[in-house]
Queue: 2 jobs
Job 1
Amino acid sequence: MTRDITRARDSMGTEPGYMPGFGNDFETEALPGALPQGQNSPQKCAYGLYAEQLSGTAFTAPRGQNERTWCYRIRPSVKHVGRFERIDMPYWKSAPHVRDDVISLGQYRWDPVPHSDAPLTFVTGMRTMTTAGDVNTQVGMAAHVYLATASMQAEYFYSADSELLVVPQEGALRFHTELGTIDLAPREIAILPRGLVYRVEVTSGPARGFVCENYGQTFDLPGRGPIGANCMANPRDFKTPVAAFEDRETPSSVIVKWCGQFHRTEIGHSPLDVVAWHGNYAPVKYDLTTYSPVGAILFDHPDPSIFTVLTAPSGQEGTANIDFVLFRERWMVAEHSFRPPWYHKNIMSELMGNIYGQYDAKPQGFAPGGISLHNMMLPHGPDRDAFEGASNAMLKPEKLDNTMSFMFETRFPQHLTEFAAREAPLQDDYAECWNGLEKKFDGTPGVK
Ligand SMILES: [Fe+2]
């Protein structure tokens, strides 16, 4: 029997190894009694562990936004860094990265970035497409494609600059993190918090996907307003791993991304040594097939914000640093309406990626693994075929099936990297998709 890909996994309870909820105050221990009860910092911790706090927000952030986790670990993190040496990571760029010789003004689309023969890890295989904002002032984001064929062996990574939202498109990854293990495959996403140490194993390769690197305030669930307490992304569908640790005494490297620069430090053991932890600052994954879309049920077309999965605020209410928006299978039922997305110009800058299937505004050319960019105040919308098809279709209820694409939308303009402009498979003729749109107006009333 084939599985209905529009449905989440069959109900068997929460997958073993994970705890449900978004931003919960979790607690978990890999050894019995490792987690102190009733206090955070006992005079002596069980098993000879060290207590350490990982703060994702300022100490004084308001309740509801305050994020921190207490870790009980084999060694304190000061033992997981030594002297740093600068290393090159030539394809991983950070904002501001504005090149005089690259034109970011234009509607752009790319075919899937192909794999190479080089053995690339999740870190060395990161290819930045766009940057926005400023990593040093903790605003904005970068959009990347990762191409991973090799697992990180005795090599660990953390980003002091950002949290990473990972959107796999091909292959599967296992994130061994300080706070537990996340298995990640297409149709799922994961959030790896700023400062969290991990290594990434390629469990099914080659692996390709997209990353939104968020320099700013952490992703949160959007307010649902009049929609009420349910639908869209429901908190219980987010899964945080239970505690897991490595007690490994082998030479290891830790790579640190800090203010856009990369550094390496050598240590003699695994830094993934957290035996127990509690708190609300933790990695999480989410199955996109559990997203319950809400949309037009009589006529017209809501703004695409109706499909927001996660939003990272910018400090200006209602204007996101980043929205992560999902376009997935759904029924189209609107009467006397043009059903695909409308033509528009937007103050926000929209980078889209296709996870699988066909996107309704662009029936051709936007392949799974492909990317498009419609930057600040650049007009875009359905191509000619989509316009003519939707303008002349019989408007019966119709299911948009086999479709899953997403958008990283930011209030900041997105600047192309040299890689995006010169090396990635840019479609030179993309903007021509609107060429066939003809003038129908001749001054006479009546529907053409
Ligand atoms: Fe748009």
Job 2
Amino acid sequence: MVGYAFMGAAHSQAWRTVNRVFDLPARVRMVAVCGRDAEKVSAAAGRLGWDEAVTDWRALIARDDIDLIDICTPGDSHAEIAIAALAAGKHVLCEKPLANTVAEAEAMTAAAQAARANGARAMCGYNYRRVPAVSLMAQLVAAGRIGTIRHVRAAYLQDWIVDPQFPLVWRLRREIAGSGALGDIGAHIVDLTQFVTGQRITGVNAMTETFIAERPLPAGSSGLSATTDDGGAVTGAVTVDDAALFLARLDGGAVATYEASRFATGRKNGLTVEINGSRGSVVFDLERLNELQFYDATVPTAEQGFRRILVTEAAHPYMSAWWPPGHIIGYEHSFTHQARDLIEAVATGTDPRPSFEDALQVQRVLDAVEQSAKSGIWAEVRKPHPAP
Ligand SMILES: NC(=O)c1ccc[n+]([C@@H]2O[C@H](COP(=O)([O-])OP(=O)(O)OC[C@H]3O[C@@H](n4cnc5c(N)ncnc54)[C@H](O)[C@@H]3O)[C@@H](O)[C@H]2O)c1
């Protein structure tokens, strides 16, 4: 694994847990973790359960006793690490968004396609697909339970940079993060809604906004937290969006709205998706991730209404491996499910989803959003739109 902070910890937890929960055709051995600071990565290895710590990711790729490289670094290093790992015949799990630009994502996808011929698998970490209620949502939609999809309404809202004195962490710098709220959280709702509907976004009309243009430089930072040590006197420019909003058309005829913001005061990690169809609706709210709201318009009028499905039955996706019905799960379980599906795919020689092709298509949507926000007019998403 490369990177050991927020996602590194979430992925480590998944690798530690997955064989204890799921019956799988292969066993995970957590061989080595890579970071740039020898002391810190060594401490992280002990804390997170890795056998060894190294300071150059190329050392991981060169080893024969490592089969899979898990990339948990910011977007500026995804392409270089993933392409080198795939060329060396390693399987790759890469955090989202796949890359910082469409060109990088295309190169990564080409590398994944070449590596596939040699049996190496590549997957991108859009983990919310693996929340059981989201998987159930996709199953209900695919089974026609809400009929023809008319509306998709998605929002991913956070508030961690509302304070203008919050420092200029890597997520606010285009050269490291690629984009702001758009690629960080907007990318998740693009992938999630395309996964659930089975439809691809074909075009967008967007606006983006950067509310705070200048911020203090950080003394130290990791993930979503940071400190300043000079009272915030030295500042730098914010080079990404703070919020991105867009309308979209999907290739199955649905229309959609998307909102991604880091300025939604009071919203910590508020991800909501509602889908309205000709025969019903489904609603997911990450803050109630064990639940799915389902409105079935085919039952007698007098009995119609949104009902809450508690997604903890053994009949629900992934849940038979966990606890008795009603014994709820949380955020980290989506990463364990991601690890499970990747191991299954690697061991059985099938392609895991979301593939790099899927993640490249998300990248093209993000690119269209930025183009439209700049031009003020509709932007088509570059083709091809691979099958969902
Ligand atoms: N799936 C999700 O829900 C989710 C959530 C958060 C972040 N992410 C994604 O995960 C990735 C990492 O985000 P994070 O929040 O974990 O960031 P983070 O700042 O918490 O951790 C980044 C880690 O990468 C290391 N690193 C940075 N550049 C490196 C390099 N060149 N070589 C080796 N190590 C390097 C840092 O030292 C740190 O350990 C990003 O792509 C982000 O978009 C995904």
